Amino acid sequence: MLRAKTDLGPRHHERQVQDEDEPEHGDGEWTIRHGWESQLTSEEYQNLLSSTFFMYFTDKKHETNGNPKDDSEIYPLQEWRMKDRLKTVSAVLALCLNIGVDPPDVIKTNPCAKLECWIDPTISTGTSGHTPMNNIGKALQTQYEQLSMRTRYKLCLDPTVDETRRYCSTLRKNARNERVLFHYNGHGVPRPTSSGEIWVFNRNYTQYIPISLYDLQSWLGAPSLFVYDCSDAGLIIQNFNKFAEKHEQENAEVLRREPNAEIMDFSDCIHLAACREKETLPTNPDLPADVFTSCLTTPIEMAVRFFILQNPLPTGITLQDAANIPGRVSERRTPIGELNWIFTAITDTIAWNSLSKPLFKKLFRQDLMVAALFRNFLLAQRIMRVYHCHPQCYPEIPETHDHPLWKSWDLAVEMILAQLPNLIAAERGEKQYEYQHSNFFAEQLTAFEVYLDQGGAMEQRVPEQLPIVLQVLLSQVHRLRALILLSKFLDLGPWAVNLALSIGIFPYVLKLLQSQAMELKPVMVFIWARILAVDQSCQTDLLKDNGYTYFISILNPNSGIPIGNQSEHRAMCAFIVAMFCKDFHQGQVVSLSPEVFESCLGHLGDLHNPLLRQWSCLCLSMLWVDYPEAKWTGIQVQAHQRLLFLRTDPVAEVRASMLHALTTFLGIPDVTPQVAQIEESIAGNLLFMAHDGNSMVRKELLVFFSTFVARYDNKFVVAAFKQLQEERNALRKSYEGVEEVNGDAGTESPSVLPQNTVFSAMWKDILILSVDPNPEVADNACVIVDYVLNAVLESPLAPYAQTLMDEIAQISAEAKKKAPRSSYADQSHSPSIPLRSKFFEWSAEYFREPQMKPTEGDEPGSMDYNMRLWRRNRNDKIIAETQPLKDVAGSNRWDRPRGFFNNGSQPQKMCFHQFEEHLIVTDDSDTVCVWDWERHTRLNRFSNGNPVGSKMTEVKFINEDDQALLMTGSSDGVVKLYRDYEDPNKVELVSAFRALTDLVPSNRYAGLVFDWQQGRGHILVAGDVRVIRVWNAGSETCTQDINARSGSCITSLTSDQVEGQVFAAGFGDGAVRIYDQRMEKKREMVKVWKEHKQWITNIHLQRGGQRELVSACRDGEVKLWDIRMDRSVKTIQATRDTLRSLSVHEHAPVFAVGTERHVVKLFNLNSGKYLSSFEPYSGFLQNKRYTPISTTAFHPHRMMIAGSALHDSHINIYECSGLGNYLDGDRE
Fold first, then answer.
1. What is the C-alpha separation between 180 and 169, in angstroms, rounded?
2. CA 487, CA 528: separation in Å to the nearest integer?
3. Is the pLDDT of residue 812 over 80?
4. What is the four-CA torsion angle of 112, 116, 120, 123, rounded to 10 degrees?
5. What pTM did the predictor assign?
6. Are both 1156 and 1110 inside the same structural domain?
């Protein structure tokens, strides 16, 4: 069982030492009763009890009732796919250098920067066709090809206006709707004009001719990418946008005239400019003349050169060595390749942390060319500002030159340069030297791990290292560690999954599905489970390249996974396959195989992992929903029969998932006799689950019932009609004394109707569930009832049915004082079935919630943990303070007033919390009051929702060591649990179920009585029935029905709280019986005493002290028992009047009885000595002698007792009067 385990245990230590100084018993030396000394004094046994202490009814299913979160509570899925992905398919490389002729507005320094594309234009090779201009153009094209090989480049060397127009128009025509790059080098022409015009040449190169940006826009169209490497370049961007607005206006006019006309959107143009307006390009001779172009196209060489210029090294590295780093850029294990890899990771990360997410997506994920240029643009920002240039771009991005990661980049460059002399020597063969790889990625992964471990993740702070983790996936060396850290990040929740998807993680994890590396399988399963839990649209991606087979193979029980918790990872695989099939018919088709069926069905027997059983069921459910071929395959492998074995599974989620699978199994289109027989057999086997203790399971059962009803609605029309006949006849017999008949005048109806069918049995279960104690279950069942009754009234049986309904209503109205009126279908609306299940969506939330980190309550330092620790210390303090007082309590009077308040209604049952200052008072109808007895204030008052004619007959706390729940039992057999019972704004029904189904209220009845065993998590339930039912709180199922072996009703139950196997029951005929759950069937009753002759008022087994078993009957006798003896140990005549109540203190040797004559008497349990008495308050109009005591209750630890009388709503609390002197003497 997966139940939340607390660090608190039962308080047993006081039992080991507290009784050493107890007075001797009258019959000899003081001992613990029943022979339980060994268990209570065994240190091993005490440790076992403490380590197996559980909290009950605190799981997610009890907080949500199986309902998934509303859309408003779910983290919104962000669009991460690049639906508008573009390619830069063509590029115009326009170089206006006019080598040898300086433009009139340029004054060059001497020496001056002169390298263009790392070529000196003043040096000519003298070879035909290899002029400096041609070499520079080819070099620029080569540099761009390093960024994008698939782009078609067109060189425009010193172009004219006509050439520029022709090239631009041609490339735009060929590119269609893709992006075109326009690279402009204006080093040999004047600066742009004030209106942003750029210069080219006339045909004879005797004049500079301006090109209007408006014309350039018309030629290139959009989308386009512009690179301006010239002075005053920022001016071009400003004017370009002005002309773009003019184009937009023209487009609007065109669309007004012709709505279907094709237009260009110039807002999708991207610009990179070397400097701002009125800034001149650097002329430093240590830099190339086209420093901006060099940053964009050869970033590594430029960055290394810049580092050398800024940080002169003592190793004698020269600027020329910047271009001599060995290796190839495309090979990441070589020095230059690794440096390029680090540069990509750093610039990507800087952009990720500096840009808004939509802008990052547009600039760094939409187009490979744009992404490469913008990564390198960040370097240009850093380098050129040192030389008083500020590169500009549109869309604008923040300044990133001072980002801390640039220091990591400098370190990486320095590490390379430190090795460069040795690397160059090794390359020449002069020495042996092995390159020492950078530890940059390992350190960044460590930083990411620190982020995950130190709480940054809990604040949902975006991790800076996420793009670096993405880059690390490219490396086999760090891949496994990166995937493990990534899985920890994704485990944080949907916000983390969204971030990872938006950064671009998906293509990498999709490609890794093709890897057969065993060590990657567990982490890949985990990552994909988290992704599919957030975004179901990844189904189509799994279908491509057969990625789904990766998980189907792992799901196979015979496949090996190199990890300890294989079952949990196979559960994730089942979830992945289920999500792959959900609402995706192609996924169902490709997944339909005997292997998947056998894997899922085989996992149903995995007793150690309920999550695997649950998702194996749901995987089958998604595989065959609305897919008849899969259902027939299921029939062939007996899947439905094997699923039915889970009807009694100890985990409610597994039972619900089994019902989900069998619900979707219904509905094979062709209802052959074989199909009908199978479906009826399934329905018959599920009927008993209508009495399941978990409301989520009952809700899922109703979904099955509604699907079955919709499929066989005609059969249910007949079943409902038959039920109406039975109800009419029963009412006649009950209220008119008329013998049961099949029909009479005016109500003739078909007499030959099928009886005792699965349909009639299911219909009765649906009617029972329509009055379920859980409101949601009842509402769902009412929908089915209304549907069927409406169908009856629309069927050929309608006249007969209407007559029956009218007659039933009439008889009920006549017997109004005896029974509530029956109600039938509401015909104002038409209910629709089948009901829709939400269980799959609720179950899938598990994979959207953190699973790796401890729960909040188990995390040291968390608020929940601290509160739990505080409560534990408080509880220990209360126990330590109260245990020494029990000696005094057994010999002093109990007459010091401690509290007095008006409950507002007649108290019927009372219960003190062990540690909180809470007193629960239930009245004679259905009201629960919560009082703070310390402050005499009422904290809350709420209704238990009892139906007419029933009342609460038992109330107790559970989970008292931590945050307690309130459990109530009612005379209609219903048990309910409440959380936050003391808060009017937060009180909430946790669970409600019908613990006894055969209770029939009468004039004299015990109702429902129960006893709660915290150590075992069992609820013993009995009352006006012939059995004692044992409910397991962990599984929420009835685990045992013990024959009471008596014809009398059971008036009270009490059990051994330490072992829990032995319990006692008091009966209405005065008998006291002892039962042992360990005994075989029909031999559970091990002892019966019949010394009492009247109704047993109460029987109680102390939790502490001497563990006395005390019983009292209405004639005033109180008896003490030892389960080893055949007769009572002691008899005390507590009163000669009728005894109305008995309460026993859990630890002190004191008991109290309430009498018929308005007196509460207290006695010493060991000696039988009378201690004192008190009379609860009664109004002045009441005659005290005739107001019996209604209820009494001891505080479990404190020496306090509460009492109340009949016909009065006041409650008195008294405490032992000798405690003050004892405490004073103890302090002295």
1. 11
2. 9
3. no
4. -120
5. 0.88
6. yes
